[in-house]
Amino acid sequence: MSASTSRSLDARSRWLGLAVLTLPVILTSMDITILHIAIPTITRELTPSPSQTLWILDAYGFLLAGLLIVMGNVGDRIGRRRLLLIGGAVFGAASTLAAFAPGPEVLIAARALMGIGGATLMPSTLSLIRNMFTDPAERTRAIGIWTASLSGGIALGPIIGGALLEVFWWGSVFLINVPVIVLLLVLAPRFVPEYRNQAPERLDVLSVLLSFATILPVVWAIKTAAEELALTPAAVTGLVVGVFAGAVFLIRQRRLQSPLVDVGLFVNPRFSGAVLGAGLAMFSLVGVMFYSAQYLQLVAGLSPLIAAFAMLPIMAAVGGMSVLASVLVPRFGYPLVFGAGSAVAAAGMLAFSRVPVDDGLIVAVVASAFIGAGIAPMMTLATDVVVDAAPPSRSGAASALSETAAELGAALGIAVLGSIGTALYRSRVLDGVPADLPPEATEAVSSSLGAALSVAEQLPAEAAAHLADLARHAFTHGLNAATITGGLVLVATAIVCPILLHRGRPPARPTHPPEDAGKR
Fold first, then answer.
1. SS3 for 81?
2. CB neighbours of 377 closer than 8 A, spacing ≥ 6?
3. Average pLDDT, stretch 434-458?
4. Which string of DSSP letters, residue by residue, matches 90-157?
């Protein structure tokens, strides 16, 4: 497609293309949270260790975050639609492998492969929208729909998972991806135009390696420190390696004519505030949804399907506020809408931290809806600012920066908030576990609430009731501490990010169509 053809791309074609692009967005975001509703069943069937359980949840997000910047640049060079189709095929194959994984090790590997496929999908969709919608107001609406799909997928994950688990085995939560991927592979060549940078620079391999050496050791160090609630020598080593590699990476980017990351974008406080806000928003949202799904099933006693329906208000709040954000911005401005969203989400998080063991269902559902309603406009506006700050020829790389922040935030939300809750649960439950319980049973009880309830089912009625009550109170204690942490993070976000958005330069508004359109 040439630049002139891009100008004449009619509205119907643009919106049909956007509808197709929402398919991979919903899938990849849904896979961040769909395991939350399925993890009690997977824990029972595959019996992973506590560490393996966290890696089943995290492997996808970590690989996704580690590769987004690289894949965003690759898409700018080889064609964004082509990368989208390649990534879709990889994602579908990995989903099939995960569905039939015989043990936790294979499931972790399959989730990592899904992360590799997902890393090609997310920046491709956002950069294609950047090129398809050249009118700023129309693009803001398109990005609002994209964000609603992203946030809606996150909220939809537990709902779809609950419905599937009511009828099928745990692998169905992965196998559901395959028909959607097939639909994408059929429709994208017909409705989505191809774009590429017509004069791409050669991809700097050393920068790619340095980006891996920066992100993965730092994420691993934070995860390890959170699990141990201490900076172990291994965690310190990983942190030092990552920080050193990051410093070398930044120095190299400043010297390259075509860098992997345009460091100059961060000079604009508006851009920096948007990227920071996207990461912190996802940190809190995904962290609390990890607890919400378990609370509804294992504490409130709902079946997977009923728990899924109990999370519908979250999805409605997220979807509605994602679209409404584009209406509020012209009247109130980016900083005020973003700050208000952060404050609403923080209030919801702090309310969730007060959820009791008994009769806490309404509090959990309402608080979660407030969290989703506050975070949805944050994600929409952050994405709009980031995408609009870059020239069309670098839109894939800029999109990847936004997505990297969001996916890193999501992965760290599970790792940090999940590890805080797990550590406090273990400490509380071991203080009250019956002394006559066999050592192997005690170890199982201390690993997770799901395992503790399974052990309780094998005990006499009175002992079973005591152990189940102890475990549920210990879990809720960990949940309270983790969600307070998430709430405080959002309070800080409500203060810092609006200041940065206000101080920064408004995003440049292009007056002409993109110059980098490739050929179909």
1. helix
2. 321, 322, 324, 325, 328, 337, 338, 340, 341
3. 78
4. HHHHHHHHHHT-SSHHHHHHHHHHHHHHHHHHHHHHHHHHHHH--SHHHHHHHHHHHHHHHHHHHHHH
Q: What is the mean pLDDT of residues 45-51?
A: 75
CA distance 53 to 290: 12
Handedness of CA 259, 265, 267, 271 (dihedral sign): negative
Least-confidence region, from 101-110, 273-282, 479-488: 273-282
What tokens appear for 313 in the block? Answer: 């208000």
Count of C-beta atoms within a 10 Å radius of residue 206? 12
Q: Under 8 Å CB-to-CB from 207, ≥6 apart: which residues?
A: 249, 252, 253, 256, 259, 260, 261
The token duo for 252 is 């190299």
Of residues 128 and 495, the one with the higher pLDDT is: 495
Alpha carbons 47 and 39: distance in angstroms, whole number: 10
pLDDT confidence of residue 389: 63
The predicted pLDDT at position 305 comes to 73
Quote the tokens at residue 196: 């590429």
DSSP string, 409-475: HHHHIIIIIHHHHHHHHHHHHHHHS-TTS-HHHHHHHHH-HHHHHHHHTTS-HHHHHHHHHHHHHHH
Which contiguous run of DSSP H or E holds residue 52? helix 50-78
Amino acid identity at 487:
G
Confidence of residue 155 (pLDDT cuts 50, 70, 90): low
Residue 343 and residue 195: Cα distance in Å, rounded?
39
- How many beta carbons lie within 10 A of that of residue 228, not counting itself? 13
Distance CA 167, CA 164 (A): 6
First to last CA, the chain: 5
pTM of the model: 0.68
8-state DSSP, 265: G
Find tokens 């990368």 and name the residue. Answer: 83
Query: Percentage of residues in the chain with pLDDT exceeding 70?
Result: 83
**Tens-place pLDDT, residues 165-215:** 888 888 888 998 899 899 989 988 888 887 766 666 677 778 878 887 887
Q: Which of 452, 424, 396, 372 is nearest to 43 (CA)?
A: 452
Place of tokens 């994405």: 383
Q: How far is CA 1 from CA 6, 185, 516, in A?
A: 7, 19, 10
Residue with tokens 């203080």: 431
Single-letter code of the amino acid located at 287:
G
